[in-house]
Amino acid sequence: MSQEIQGRVGEIRAVQGSEETVRLGPYLDVIVQELHGRFFEQTRVGRVFSIPGTITGFAGAATHVSPLAAGTGTPVVGLYNPRGSGKAAVILQAAFIIAAVADTAVGLPVWNTIPDTTQITAAQNATPVPNLVGQGAASVMRGFTNAALTGSTLATYLRHLMPSSVQVAVATATAFTMMTEQTDGSIIVPPGAFAGLALSAAGTTYNITGSLTYEEVDWPL
């Protein structure tokens, strides 16, 4: 049994809650692609936030090494979802930057996670920023960068960062590499849990930083 699809050719501006026909293209193709980019709708409704890493460089140290130690591990950048938040953080993107001069042990970015087994009591030092600039409610997540996760248990190594793009620049004294991962919701942080970037090894003569972008959704769905 076939059913005819009816629509309207051209752009339609509708009000919230109204019932409208689908949009068609000039060849009667149903237009379903995201016209303004993948994260436009989530950002428009104020659900997308970013956690900035430390701007001034810090050296990769033993406290950054995976798995992050209980209570003293310091993620490059990460987020904690407080218990009872009623929200989950769906990680969309992650970035990692390393600036090195010369080092025999260079740590690579790896994901570390901590389940809801204890309550992280440390105060955030990287406040999530709304991607809907200047509008929307604050995120319930707590951001961390280069700070001890006081109250945490031993983290678990999840996987390496899987860069979708890598940019390398070489200067007279320092070479830096920026890795960007399109996480695309493949990591979800429910209430009470933590996720962030750690290092595969420590070092002494390079600086590191990073950032996370995530969508905040109701939980459980």
Overview of this protein structure:
With 221 residues, the protein is mainly beta. It has one domain (47-218). Helices cover 2% and strands 37% of the residues. The protein contains 1 helix and 15 strands; from the N terminus they run ββαβββββββββββββ. It has one helix spanning 40-44; strands at 7-9, 22-24, 48-52, 58-59, 77-80, 87-100, 109-114, 129-130, 142-144, 156-160, 165-170, 175-182, 188-189, 194-199, 206-218. Strands 3, 4, 6, 8, 11, 12, 13 and 15 form an 8-stranded antiparallel sheet that branches. Strands 9-5-14-7-10 form a 5-stranded antiparallel sheet, with no helix packed on it. 32% of the residues are buried. The model has no long low-confidence stretch (mean pLDDT 86).
What is this structure's SSE topology?
Elements: E1 7-9, E2 22-24, H1 40-44, E3 48-52, E4 58-59, E5 77-80, E6 87-100, E7 109-114, E8 129-130, E9 142-144, E10 156-160, E11 165-170, E12 175-182, E13 188-189, E14 194-199, E15 206-218
Parallel strand pairs: 1-2
Antiparallel strand pairs: 3-8, 3-15, 4-15, 5-9, 5-14, 6-12, 6-13, 6-15, 7-10, 7-14, 11-12
